Amino acid sequence: MKVLCVCGMGFGTSIILKMNAEKALAKLDVPAEVTTSDVSTARGSAQGADLILTSAELADKLEGVAAPVEVITNFMDAAEIESALAKHLT
Amino acid sequence: MALNLSTVLPDSAVVLGARPSDWREAVRVAGEALVRSGCTTEPYTRAMVQAVEDLGPYIVIAPGIAIAHARPSEAVVRSGLSWVRLAVPVNFGHTHNDPVHLVIGLAARNPQDHLKVMSAVAGALADKKQAAALAAASKGEQIRAILAASAG
């Protein structure tokens, strides 16, 4: 599964989201590749992603991208991230 | 590679009991702490405020916690963190995670520079006991000790 974490700058906040997404994926026992990007390159990076995780403010800017978008309110909340991921497991 | 927290987060970059009047001032306090510790120059502080003006308060990534930062640029002398705990929380206009009581300033020379440090910060904040200890810390060295323990 390919997961793209999108934040404003592509580092900083998306690294936190990426780390917690990787932990959640390991817990769900799903092999996955998690990458990060900033909001301006997300459209391109979204090609080939199965799922995009981002924050509410930035989700609006991702309208119409190639992959489904899940909004994460609390980047530190493992349960929230797990349930967002679980919705998209095949 | 050991995490050298005393370089990344020296006492000069730790502010406890700050009282900014609004979110812009809160971000500026985090930026000034980075300048004080020698990590950045003043343009970076302006860029940190501008980032929120341009993209909204996405930096408030969890209830009460904001990670203030801007793109790597020449205004970053070396990578590092600042730690600003607010005596009075401020609103950043985030729909879910306001008000903010902790602003962590982040400066990186390049996007990779922060991985270890951010993992330690993220790990410590995600653990309830460590997060409570961080909120109660009264000295820079206590904060560094908690982050070092989280880095493992």
What does this structure look like?
The complex is a heterodimer of chains A (90) and B (152). Chain A is an alpha/beta fold. Chain A has one domain: 3-Layer(aba) Sandwich (Rossmann fold). Helix content of chain A is 36%, strand content 21%. A 4-stranded parallel sheet of chain A has the order 2-1-3-4. In chain A, strand 3, helix 3 and strand 4 (69-71) form a beta-alpha-beta unit. The radius of gyration of chain A is 11 Å and the shape is globular. Chain A starts with a strand and ends with a helix. By secondary structure, chain B is an alpha/beta fold. Chain B has a domain at 9-111: Mannitol-specific EII, Chain A, CATH 3.40.930. Chain B has 6 helices and 5 strands. In chain B, helix 2 runs antiparallel to helix 3 (42-55) and helix 4 packs across helix 6. The longest helix of chain B has 14 residues, at 23-36. Chain B starts with a helix and ends with a helix. The model of chain B has no long low-confidence stretch (mean pLDDT 91). Classes of the chains: A alpha/beta (90), B alpha/beta (152). The interface between A and B is medium-sized, with 23 and 31 residues.
Keywords:
heterodimer, A: alpha/beta, four-stranded parallel beta sheet, 4 helices, B: 152 residues, 43% helix, globular
